[in-house]
């Protein structure tokens, strides 16, 4: 693992008037590392993810990203155009609802190809060939390349969204409840696929989930949030097998009792 963090998050807080979204969150994310942010609904995990991914402006704090040129940039000191380019190229964002991350009225191939065009690829043959390759990697038959996502099942849409995000070889992927709403068997297939891609591509990822089984399967490290605060933070197996905070113990025991 690199000695240089890919992402440095320092004292991030987000307030909505008197209500706290998240407060004083700090951590480093390392190349090739998957971090899970877990907690119940309203714990602040999605607010934190949206701040880190620049979809939401934090009230206080800073987030620095290690650019490909070797320099750190404060994400909120970059121009809007620079951030948009980063999101189209070096980052991916996988939404819980695939319709939020796909263009539902264009073909599967076009959904993948648009990301390539965003980084300057204009050769139709190359774009289509790459799209076919990525559909195969996410276990979608190549003969579905001209079908629109609205003709796909929920699991297929989520796999297509993953292909759309990973085709530009990003270094960092954000995932917001990536298996939410999917059947258990579909979830297992999707998680196994994503875990393999993360390992093969050396991706870093931040995964928000309320499902501790998802956190265990995907992540190296996890943060537990409650009322906008990180109350426990450590290696995933340690946190789940030997939780120190009463709230974490309650979360783990509730899963074991299901």
Radius of gyration: 18 Å
* The CATH fourth-level homologous superfamily of the largest domain: P-loop containing nucleotide triphosphate hydrolases
* Overall helicity: 25-40%
Largest sheet properties: 6 strands, mixed
Distance between the termini: 36 Å
What is the top-level CATH class of the largest domain? Alpha Beta
Which helices and strands occur, and which strands form pairs?
Blueprint (H helix, E strand, L loop, with lengths): L6 E10 L2 E11 L4 E5 L6 H8 L7 E7 L5 E3 L5 H10 L1 E4 L13 H11 L5 H14 L16 H13 L5 E5 L7 H18 L2 E6 L2 H7 L2 E6 L2 E7 H6 L4 H12 L1
Parallel strand pairs: 3-8, 3-9, 6-7, 7-8
Antiparallel strand pairs: 1-2, 1-4, 4-5, 9-10
Helix pairs in contact: 3-4, 3-5, 4-5, 5-6
